[in-house]
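Researcher: Re-running this chain for the archive, since the previous output was lost when a drive failed. Same request as before.
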Amino acid sequence: MKDKLSKFISLIKKYGLITTIKKVIGYILSGFISFLDSINVLQNKKISEQLDDIINKSEYERIIIWRSTFGWNVPLFQRPQHISLNLSRQKCLVFYEVTHFTDKVKNIKKQDKNLILINFENKMAKKILFSKLKHISKPKYIQIYSTDWNMKLEELKNYIANGYKIIYEYIDEINPILTGTKEVPINIQEKYKYMLEDKKNVFVVVTADKLKEDIEAKRGTENLVFACNGVDYEHYQNIYANFKFDTEFQEILAEKKPIIGYYGAFASWFDYEMIRKLATDRPQYNIVLIGTKYDDTLEKSGIEQLSNVHFLGTKSYNVLKNYANKFNVCTVPFIINDITKATSPLKIFEYMALGKPIVTTAMDECIKYKSIFIANNKEEFVKLIDMALKLDKTKNEQYYNTLRKEALENTWQHKTEEILQLLKNDEIKNKE
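Model: Regenerated structure tokens:
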């Protein structure tokens, strides 16, 4: 209860009281609608028949169930969707948990050939699924995020007792700032501790070197794989030629100033003072910020009041690439702390795929790439932006080739293959 209250207060800071109340009511209504769907006898019979058809007629080597209420059709199309989609295309039958609130999926929906969206708020749909999977002898896995605070350890252990193994994606520092609570929620703490103990049934996927070092020091290297974030390279090659931008961005383009861009989260780890320095020292540049307010730090920073700083809000995954394609230089101006040292910024690989010069601060997961220019302070940040703007594609062909090379080395397909190899090694060992 304490965790939920802390989260509620955090949401108020992020969205305001009225919007937060609307969201809470929406979630409650979503659960109620799912409950009504779950007692529909005719519908349950249809679900059973659909699942029989999927499970018995699909070609796959293993079953993976993604447990989280992250959603599928949400503006932030990120790691969960990309990994699940690529798993489904590599001989895995994937059931991806959504809610009626995020995706309007009453029970189940076939999203791709081997990718099924399923609403676990519909208790009967969940029950029918697991009753049918009980008789499947192929390897079965539950995939979760380290930041998931909904699933209790008891439920996780119950899955293991019923023949499932766990794919634990350790994606961020275990930190209350990221969960939006005063303390790390107990469900997150307990699953993390259990993961360290159960090397046989829990496979750990780490996304940053710092997280890898943490696991190796406490648990060792058994059933561990490094698979940082990646990119759908082809998605960023398909830019809409006649895309119509919103009025504010059209006005920015009309000014014909160099555009320095960032998209992602706005939170306490974003270096607003670095952006202020750039904006005031280089009034001849426009700075475009796109993304989600994780907390109230953007408003408190006051940088939106600067005439050449433009916050455009959130853009959906399918259109975001068109905005970013107009950036002359892409940035990730994060403060260096425990959170950002353990962060694999997904956006750097998308910037690479777009073929845009990149300037970031000295995050561990950025300094390893040759195509990224690293700023150690505000003054250096401004100078590197100036330098990056001068990188002509014809005169600096080697740099742009490096961008493309590093993007192609970090596709979601490659990341998924790394995870799958870990599972396959264990499956082969168990057959011997």
